[in-house]
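Form 7-S
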Amino acid sequence: MRRILRGAAIPVAILLLWESGSRAGLLPMDTLSRPSDVAAAFAHALADGSIPLATWQTVQAALLGFAIAAATGVLAGVILGLSPVLERTVGPSIEALRPVPAVALTPLTLLLFGFGLRMEAAIVAFACVWPVLLVTVAAVRGIEPRLLEVAQALRLSFPSRLRKIILPAALGRVLVGLRVALSISLIVAVTVEIVMNPRGLGYGMIVASQSLKPDLMYAQLLWLGFLGWGLNAMLTRVFGRWHGAFGPGVQP
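Output:
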């Protein structure tokens, strides 16, 4: 509790300075609304359902793209980590694709999927797969060789090796890649909504800005920051439980 209060000191101080500066006429009201007006706009948008709907649309696309990237990145990372020859073959293609900005794929995904969830989730998945893939490859390469020798001696199938040895031994580092990918997922989802896709919180902020409603725009922006913090805190707790339950070592 003390940690939360200490962490909230700076945001609360900024809000108080913002409110007092606005009421004193030191800040332009046409671009910087008062925090009290922002709170009122948020309450109104919450009551009419626009904030919950936009939040669901953004989170839906972010988590769907994250899930696709997590499954693809972990599986491909394990395969490449176990096969240096295959990694050297595929590596140049990965390094050619990885620097491509995810948002640059918007015209292509729009052509393939049209507006909506699938377009947004595809771009999010492309952006999120790289940290998961690279971290997983490095984690698998760092596994104690004797564990892999045990799996080979026991003649375990690939799914059994993956479940009982590889993932438990590499889990700690893989979770780091997943946390990074989760943060990227929300950023990319909102960016796509701002640039092209007419749904979610990003689109809502653009509409509020163009409608000269700075209070509503700031309400959505602050809510988006709180949403990102909440998702990260939730996933950190979940990943921590996973790591505690399936820490490094061979699972029975």
